[in-house]
Amino acid sequence: MGDFDFSVIIDSLPFLWDGLQLSLLLTFLAIIGGLVLGTLLALARLSGIAPLALFAAGYVNLIRAVPLILVIFWFYFLVPLALGRPIGGFYSALIAFVMFEAAYYSEIMRAGIQSVAKGQVHAGKATGLGYWQIQRFIVLPQAFRNMIPILVTQGIILFQDTSLVFVVSLRDLMTASSIVARTEGRLVEMYLFAALVYFVICFAGSLFVRRLQTRMAT
Amino acid sequence: MNYNWNWSVLFEPEYFGWLISGLGWTISVALCAWVIALVVGSLIGVGRTLPNKFLSKICTAYVELFRNIPLLVQMFIWYFAVPEMVPEDAGRWMKREMPQPEFVTAVVALGLYTASRVAEQVRAGIETVPQGLRSAAISQGMSIAQVYRYILLPISFRLIVPPMTSEFLTVFKNSSLALTIGLLELTAQSQQIAEYTFQSFEAYTAATVIYVLIALCATVIMSLLERQTRIPGYSGKES
Amino acid sequence: MIELENVSKWYGDFQVLTDCTTKVEKGEVVVVCGPSGSGKSTLIKCVNGLETVQEGRIVVDEAEVTAKSAKLTALRAKIGMVFQHFELYPHMSVCDNLCLAQEKVLGRSRSEAEARTETLLTRVGMIDHISKYPGQLSGGQQQRVAIARSLAMDPIAMLFDEPTSALDPEMIKEVLDVMVELAREDGMTMMVVTHEMGFARKVADRVVFMDQGAIVEDRPTQEFYENPTSERARDFLSKILNH
Predict the structure, then answer these.
(1) Residue B4 resides in a domain
(2) Predicted ipTM of the assembly
(3) Within a domain: residue A203?
(4) Closest residue to B138, CB basis, from C76, C78, C133
(5) Residues of A in contact with B27 (CB under 8 A)
(6) Taking CA C175 as the corner, what is the angle to CA C169 and CA C177, rounded to the nearest 5 degrees?
């Protein structure tokens, strides 16, 4: 412990920064994709159309029963097979994350949609709006607003989850740290530094969520 | 799509054995970690609600630290960094003599990480118990310890059974991270079968089905527990 | 039995109690009333130390509640308290609700505690419900059990914090009947925060009227109702009488 070597961290900063950018990009794209797909799944589940609702429920429950690593393995194998050609690790990982997170976002959105009072939907119908108009202008905006803190929290979890691309050697912050740790033989420094970076970002995010919650409560 | 199906590969004794052994490790890691998570998480969660400022700050720090660092990073720190950071003799023991180092590390890492999530549920449960019940118990002359022992904990543990179900499922899923430090649990075994046989679809399907079965069992167990512990006529939501 | 001397209390900058002084003698029944937010609930909660006060002295049975060294748990065990929302322990049967503190605080054996429990439940007319859970009882039934739970500790005095204000009208009487009996037959020392005029007239020796954290009137019951001296008390009485 006495010979903690800061220089190895400083020397590898550019390399780690590239990794962090990949983590953040993956997080950002997966949030958007997961949110869109998740909302569609939630709407399907609440649609009242039995086959659609059943399919959505089945998908969500299946994904939620399985570890993310296994889902990543699945899509690394399935995506090139389905497309007939390899598309690179990043896109396979992205698709895996979107498909995985959609299940979790759909549960959040379902709770959000159900939290919007029934009277709102009736009011929309009474004024002659169609299903998609009611969802678009009345239900979803309110649901999103109620759900913002939870959605951000899920985003923080997603950011932490991106570290799992380590299992397919995609070069995110975690993989980059681990590469330096091994080649330089500086395991303590690199893993503690990676922990620090993740902690600062996630803790800042959770403080932000807390502020959102207090602002919404007042 | 171009794929040669061969489901029988799963039932070749060698690969079938891998799956069973993987399942064994998954269940062992998850259950051992769950015990740690329940014990440590309950203590930390209770600590956060105590009037003692110093104690509650320490418990809050624990929760923030453990839930804001990815489990994978924590697992690597426990496995690779901690043996270098402790006194030399202890480090040597951890690296050379500790039995089942991957298993022990995975259990400790997963257990302490899950404890931070359990602690949040416990704290939320305690805070849901109406203030008036606390006053009633205090006004009967109970000490703080008695109020927790007989009133707050029994009620809050019943209230948090449903959210704990999802934590219980998560601990099984998160046990798959043990493969990153070389423990051949279920996910690792299925990947290994995929690599050996090129029957990825069959191998991953087998693992997926097993995880779904685990989730079903865990859900059934927890809903039985919920029915067992339900308080007649009480939802915890009244004032 | 219960003495309050110049009691003042603040929440931050907001003063909830201002210089309150009053007394409840042994065997006396005192009703505390006043508009909502007048501090009457806070005052009664100070008596057993559920709320702390910043200034003044509270003495119960020759023990000073407000002293730093006060043995509050021992004192609280001797003073019964009944709450607006009953506060029965929801995870325990009626029987266990009554037995818990008898065993854990007073150190009674299970059989002693059960014997006392059965006597008291019979008295409040709830013996048939002894194995039920609080959530399975009506509000009036819960409050009668709560009163029995307090009595099980053999208290030297009872505090009631708006015992009937969370009840549906048809249940108020069953609870008040128990309280009247307690005052008349046991001669229990009671401090009761309530608006129930009928109850006050029947059994209260004195009425303490509070407004904005201060005790405005503290007089024998009949005098208070027939001839309130302060404008605020007259105003208050006209509001609760005229509906």
Answers:
(1) no
(2) 0.89
(3) no
(4) C76
(5) none
(6) 110
